[in-house]
């Protein structure tokens, strides 16, 4: 009976799985494109750094902290008007990607800032001493030196997005969370609930193992 139920569910599980990958993929791409430069900005404008600017640091830091302090489920609902404006709908994986992206940007930005704080200040000072421009320091010193930390930060961000994407199912965002709620919770189907939990656990484990492996390979220390 259990096996038969799983076989019947396979098309829905496959669809939900790829919807989750789609949502996480879009939001992760947005996090890299916008969160990486934001994280660099937070670091280089800090006190004692080569682009020190208390105003920029203060404004950017407060915006990041504000968004990060909002629980995702509240952020998801609050962004429904923006989601509708950008995608023309408030349901489905594309719509859910809007709130996921907004949540991912400040999260990854802080990860970037933290990874760069682990860089030996002497390396930065040496680059300044030989006349390197700000862009050269960022491109040739900060990013290469922080690469292992950036990979780990990206891994943590991805895992967090998987969890957030499951919550997006509450408002019809699609993906594994939506499947668990519609078929598992509303229909009291424990088979669906257990299966979706197992799929999420396996997905997170694969992401973590891949992130750890890549981080070790790029770590030249």
Describe the structure.
The chain has 221 residues and is mostly helical. The chain has a single domain, classed as MetI-like (MetI-like fold), CATH 1.10.3720.10. Helices cover 82% and strands 0% of the residues. The chain has helices spanning 2-44, 54-69, 72-78, 80-87, 93-117, 121-129, 134-145, 147-167, 175-185, 190-218. The longest helix has 43 residues, at 2-44. It is elongated and about 70 Å long. Its main location: membrane. It is found in: Cell membrane. Belongs to the binding-protein-dependent transport system permease family. CysTW subfamily. It is a multi-pass membrane protein. One of its GO terms (biological process) is D-methionine transmembrane transport.
Helix content: over 70%
Here the CATH topology equals MetI-like fold
Average predicted local confidence, pLDDT: 88
SSE order in H/E notation?
HHHHHHHHHH
Tell me the number of strands: 0
What portion of the residues fall into strands of 2 or more residues?
A: under 5%
For the record, give the distance between the C-alpha atoms at the N and C termini, rounded to a whole number. Answer: 54 Å
Overall number of structural domains: 1
From the alpha-carbon coordinates, what is the Rg to the nearest angstrom? 20 Å
Low-confidence stretches: none
Q: In CATH's first tier, which class applies?
A: Mainly Alpha
C-alpha geometry = elongated
Write out the CATH superfamily name: MetI-like
What does the largest sheet look like?
none
**So, CATH architecture?**
Orthogonal Bundle
Membrane topology: Multi-pass membrane protein
Main location: membrane
Domain ABC transmembrane type-1: 17-211
Protein name: Methionine ABC transporter permease
